[in-house]
Amino acid sequence: MGDLLLSTPLFHWTKKTYPNQKLGLICRKGLGQPLLELGLIDFYWEIEKGNQKTYQNVIQELKKFEINQLISPHTSLRTALMVAQIKAHHKISFKKIWNFIFFQNRVSFEKQWPESIRLLKLIENRNPELQQNFNNLRPSEEYILKNETHDLLPAPSWADPGFCIDQNRVESKKQQYQINEKYRFNNAVALFPGSVWATKMWKKEKFIELGQSLHAKGFQVVIMGGPEEKTLGEEVARQIPGALQLCGKTNVLESLLLLTNVKLVIGNDSSSSHMAALMNRPVVSFFGPTVLHFGYRPWTGKVKVFEVNSLNCRPCGSHGPKVCPLGHHKCMQDLNITLQDLQPFLN
Ligand code: SF4
């Protein structure tokens, strides 16, 4: 889901570049509806990984449409073969040595940029305003350099996911789903202790300790995550007085909407940080086996990233392995933060 949320600026600028066209999205099951409801896309078609029938259904469905621009950020052969079966006036993707037969327009993949910028490069030369914005970008390395208080340079406003979302729409969806009635918090901090990738998770005990400190300072702690993180969420919530355990209890849209009612989001290098960025909330993120150079930093204005810089073994995988290959998991074991570190976001 994180990758999709980092595509929000691409959705925004694609709509802006082709104002008379509708924007459709092909995505994994469960992710289309929240983006549709937030007004980021106009249609969606969902596929299930490994379920060939769902791919064929989408291809058949797309035959009903006249497609002007087909933009494919994915560069796998499987995606290219799917694209080959879809008719479109222009097909755009990142350049691979072999994919010239599938796409007329191919753009260099510039890995030094944060992911949202890399994605926007797919349509950069189609919109003069976007081109002008690109001319004013800071050098790429500045976006992954932290200062001594762990802050990162904010994303430029025109490419910030939070800027791409219509606040009136957010408010109307909050009313529709009664978010303020169900989750009206005075002083809340959301903790996301889980991740799909086991080695990307900060230690459960440390989340508990941090949650207890937040509670002692008068904050309502809210534990969030997907249904598969429910057991972890319950273990963490049980040891933090007054904590509200919501893992598995809210769907993606409700989770996004209720984040607008919290002061700060704290989680691992995972979709939680991109959810916070989309909803324009300050975010604190823990990086273990992954590094900022990969391009997946929380892409927003108020962000702190904590990591253990002294380890030579980092990074050890593009997502982080299932278990630490060295057995000690020091990238997370040795990562400590205090309330003092979070203070600017808690005031
Ligand atoms: S090898 Fe290093 S970076 Fe990878 S999980 Fe272990 S401690 Fe973390």
What would your notes on this structure say?
The protein has a 6-stranded parallel beta sheet, with helices on both faces. β7 (220-223), α11 and β8 form a beta-alpha-beta unit. The protein contains 15 helices and 11 strands. It is globular, with a radius of gyration of 20 Å. The chain has 2 domains: 2-137, Rossmann fold, CATH 3.40.50; 161-346, Glycogen Phosphorylase B (Rossmann fold, 3-Layer(aba) Sandwich). It has helices at residues 2-6, 8-17, 32-37, 52-62, 77-84, 115-120, 128-135, 167-176, 179-182, 204-216, 230-238, 252-259, 271-278, 330-333, 339-346; strands spanning 24-28, 43-47, 69-72, 90-94, 105-107, 188-192, 220-223, 244-245, 264-268, 283-286, 303-306. It starts with a helix and ends with a helix. With 347 residues, it is α/β, with parallel strands linked by helices. The structure holds iron/sulfur cluster. Iron/sulfur cluster (SF4) binds next to α14.
Write a concise synopsis of the structure shown:
With 347 residues, the chain is an alpha/beta fold. The chain has helices at residues 2-6, 8-17, 32-37, 52-62, 77-84, 115-120, 128-135, 167-176, 179-182, 204-216, 230-238, 252-259, 271-278, 330-333, 339-346, and strands at 24-28, 43-47, 69-72, 90-94, 105-107, 188-192, 220-223, 244-245, 264-268, 283-286, 303-306.
